[in-house]
Design goal:
Structural class: mainly alpha
Helix content: 40-55%
CATH topology of the largest domain: Serine Threonine Protein Phosphatase 5, Tetratricopeptide repeat
CATH architecture of the largest domain: Alpha Horseshoe
Order of helices and strands: HHHHHHHHHEEHHHHHHHHHHHHH
Shape: flat
CATH superfamily of the largest domain: Ankyrin repeat-containing domain
Strand order of the largest sheet: 1-2
Strand content: under 5%
Largest sheet: 2 strands, antiparallel
Distance between the termini: 48 Å
Length: 385
């Protein structure tokens, strides 16, 4: 058991007994002192997670976890949470249903697997046999908010808001999107994610897997070609695809959205896009909340001249960012993380505090720079302090 290396979620053909075996192996590895097993309990067991930020591990030492008296029920819960189930009973119910050969749940889960591995032939065959699959939804009970996201196949191509191990983008993701859309997928169907309801486009533009796979822009174009609402649908927080793309730093996607007609005629969008003249023109008529959001966005995206305009207009460089704009951090944290030297130097010049800690990781801007490997930025911050 000392060689235990992971609690990787099992595939759709795994039985309850297979998951039980995984839990037994995890517990045995913990008792043998295996570091990976300790990490899995730390990251997956609710006992060791922050009660408010429920995905965030608390600062608990390995020895405390080993001495916690964890038993098989705890290991079952950790295995279930590693697979994004709410708890062990939710895993058992879902896995049992998937095991029924004629179950619509099994049909949907197998279709998801074919989709995210890019197996067009398999998915086409499934859709021919069962055309309703393209409008089917997940019934998995997760550890998310809300617990049942009800994602469609198209949502899984957004690779966001669904099970973490399924947030993957195949190289032919654009082709797979065209397949499910041509089969009748609803392009603006809503799913329950991140405390609200969102369409695929709003989730896609803030998702790293499709960006890393080089398919994010192509997927955006396809969704828009099929009539996705360019200003978004659903809940307000991540409704706007353009603002969501900017908040998460996907500037190439933001450029596509603007080219395709997304509204950028307001201060926050102008600041996020680095439009200095437009920012200057819009600034006098903007409300305080818009100015706050504009500074947060301009700093994290590296638009030094826009940041200068906002500071000249009286914005406070030490105020934490507003909700929806990485509110746990200051503009200096975000600029340091992204390596925006001109913005970092400007904020220091304007008196930004270097000792403020963020509210999640409790680290200063120099800590953020070091964590991201931004050594040049870290040296600038250290010299200034």
């Amino acid at each position: 058991m000392a060689e235990f290396t992971s609690a990787t979620p099992l595939g759709p053909d795994a039985t309850v007994r297979d998951h039980e075996n995984q839990a037994e192996q995890l517990l045995a590895a913990l008792r043998a002192g295996n570091a990976t097993a300790v990490r899995i309990f730390h990251q997956c067991h609710p006992r060791f997670l922050d009660p408010e930020v429920t995905w965030l591990p608390r600062p608990v030492g390995d020895d405390e976890i080993r001495a916690a008296g964890l038993d098989l029920d705890d290991a079952r819960l950790a295995v279930a949470r590693a697979a994004c189930y709410r708890d062990w009973p939710a895993l058992v119910d879902h896995v049992t249903e998937i095991g029924r050969p004629d179950s619509p749940v099994r049909a949907f889960e197998l279709a998801v697997e074919a989709l995210i591995r890019g197996d067009r032939t398999a998915l086409e065959a499934m859709l021919r046999r069962n055309p309703e699959l393209v409008r089917a939804r997940s019934v998995r009970v997760t550890c998310f908010d809300p617990a049942v996201h009800r994602a469609t196949l198209l949502h899984y191509l957004g690779a966001n808001g669904v099970e973490g191990h399924r947030q993957r983008s195949p190289a032919n993701a654009v082709e797979m999107a065209e397949l499910v859309l041509d089969a009748g997928a609803e392009v603006d169907a809503l799913a329950a994610m991140y405390g609200g309801e969102y369409a695929t486009l709003s989730m896609l533009v803030s998702s790293s897997p499709p960006a890393d796979a080089g398919v994010q822009g192509g997927l955006v174009e396809v969704l828009l070609d099929w009539g996705a609402a360019i200003e978004g649908v659903g809940s307000e927080e991540w409704k706007s695809p353009l603002m969501t793309a900017l908040v998460f730093g996907f500037r190439d996607v933001a450029a596509i959205l603007v080219r395709r007609g997304a509204r950028a005629d307001h201060l926050v969008a102008a600041a996020g896009l680095g439009r200095v003249e437009a920012t200057a023109a819009l600034l006098p008529g903007a409300d305080p909340g818009a100015k706050h959001r504009a500074l947060a966005l301009a700093a994290q995206l590296g638009h030094a001249e826009v940041v200068r305009l906002l500071l000249d207009a009286g914005e406070d460089p030490d105020r934490f960012n507003p909700p929806g704009f990485h509110a746990h951090a200051t503009p200096l944290h975000q600029a340091a993380l992204a390596g925006h030297e001109a913005v970092v130097r400007l904020l220091i010049e304007r008196g930004a505090r270097l000792d403020l800690a963020d509210t999640l990781w409790h680290a200063t801007p120099v800590g953020w720079a070091r964590h991201q490997g931004q050594e040049a930025i870290a040296r600038i911050l250290e010299a200034a302090s």
